[in-house]
Amino acid sequence: MTSIYKATEDDVSLLAEIGKVTFIESHGSSAAPEEIDKYVNEKYNPDVLGKELIDSKNIYHLIYHDKKAAGYSKIIFDSQHKDIPQKNVTKLERIYLLKEFYDLKLGAELFTFNLALSKNNNQAGMWLIVWEENHRAIAFYKKAGFTIIGKGDFCLTQTHSNPNYRMFLQY
Predict the structure, then answer these.
(1) Crossing angle of the two packed helices 135-143 and 106-120, in degrees rounded to 10
(2) Which of 14, 25, 40, 123 has its CB 3.0 to 4.6 Å from that of 20, i.e. a possible disulfide?
(3) Whole-angstrom distance, CA of residue 58 vs CA of residue 132
(4) By three-state DSSP, how is residue 136 classified?
């Protein structure tokens, strides 16, 4: 059985743990191990995530399968981007699923949940940034109707960045 819950401050350690593991699983080959470690330790720690969770603009959800945490998402409503003329668009900032759950289509379920949440909050579309080498994610988003609208670099560390696509789905 699958369930999705809004994350609270009580979930900060779980989010940090899932964030580190899933980032390494999906992006671990994008830079040297020490750069990946530095990034995940800076971005996916309880202090940083705790501050994000208390900021009402950040909306986190956890997905569980058979009472086991399988992944999480983060969206931000009304997050404009210079390349998107529409107002009231949602940024899908993170959607991460632990690799052991890939074949269960839980990522699609979490995405569909966030898409409905966005639409129900009068948003005109959704945008995201995805690493150019994450072919699985790019194929998933294209199948969902997203189009590539631009490129940009994602700064992993002060000395390393990865090329990314900016994708958009208009409702």
Answers:
(1) 50
(2) 40
(3) 25
(4) helix
What's the token pair of residue 96?
Answer: 């991460």
Q: How many CB atoms lie within 10 A of CB 135?
A: 10
3-state secondary structure of 164: strand
- Torsion angle defined by CA atoms of residues 55, 8, 19 and 106, in that order, rounded to the nearest 10 degrees: -120
Indicate the domain borders of the chain. 2-170
Query: Residue 89: its pLDDT value, please?
Result: 98
Domain 2-170 has CATH 3.40.50.150: no
Please give the average pLDDT of every successive group of 10 residues along the chain, which has 171 residues. 96 97 91 92 95 96 97 97 94 96 95 98 97 92 97 85 94 97
